[in-house]
Design brief:
It is a single chain. It contains four helices and twelve strands, in the order E-H-H-E-E-E-E-E-E-E-E-E-E-H-E-H. It has 183 residues and is α+β, with helices and mostly antiparallel strands. It folds into two domains: 63 residues, Phenylalanyl-tRNA Synthetase, Chain B, domain 1, CATH 3.30.56.10; 109 residues, OB fold (Dihydrolipoamide Acetyltransferase, E2P). A hairpin with a 5-residue loop joins strand 4 and strand 5. Helix 1 packs across helix 4. The longest helix is centred in the first third of the chain and has 10 residues.
Length: 183
């Protein structure tokens, strides 16, 4: 059974302890935790960026030059090939030095003679889906520079509980919260 640590804490606000401590308590209750996974591990460096300007790349028909606000007051130039990039849009942005799923390291790059200071990301590049046709478009009132995992609620842990047949009450978040809640 996959349990969200964050969701568990919202159901049982009095629940104390780290994900590891909660896993130990579950093991003492007869429901060992096989695995604890931090959901934002591979995308912790990604932030939300607002594209302020989009113009055609001078040396490539299918590329565009984007002026990006990724927080901190600095404007960055990013070369982008996604067909859905628009001025004013909010997108996940991997700055220089970020690492994406699959061990992809983001560095300053020159594409067809133009410098790119990071990467605007699709859901597939973030390991969040299979869509690679365009950038992952974000809806909402997010400030540029906001951590992507915080904005989307991915700053969470998943606990994989080994539920035995006699512990059916642990097959839901509410059941696990009841077992762990104080009092």
């Amino acid at each position: 059974m996959n349990i969200s640590y964050r969701w568990l804490r919202s159901i049982a606000p009095g629940l104390q302890g780290t994900p590891q401590e909660v896993a130990e308590r579950l093991a003492m209750l007869g429901a060992p935790v096989d695995e604890i996974v931090y959901l934002g591990a591979d995308i912790g460096d990604v932030v939300i960026a607002r594209v302020e300007e989009v113009r055609q790349h001078p040396n490539a028909d299918r590329l565009r030059l984007c002026t990006v606000n990724a927080g901190g007051g600095e404007r960055l130039q990013v070369v982008c090939g996604a067909p859905n990039v628009e001025a004013g849009g909010l997108y996940p942005f991997a700055p220089i030095g970020a690492t994406l799923p699959g061990g992809i390291s983001i560095g300053k790059a020159k594409l067809r003679g133009e410098v790119s200071e990071g990467m605007l990301c699709s859901a597939r590049e973030l390991g969040l889906g299979r869509d690679h046709a365009g950038l992952m478009t974000l809806q909402g009132d997010f400030a540029p520079g906001t951590r992507f995992v915080d904005a989307l609620g991915l700053d969470d842990y998943r606990l994989l509980i080994d539920v035995t047949p006699n512990r059916g009450e642990l097959l839901s978040h509410v059941g696990v919260a009841r077992e762990l809640a104080p009092g």
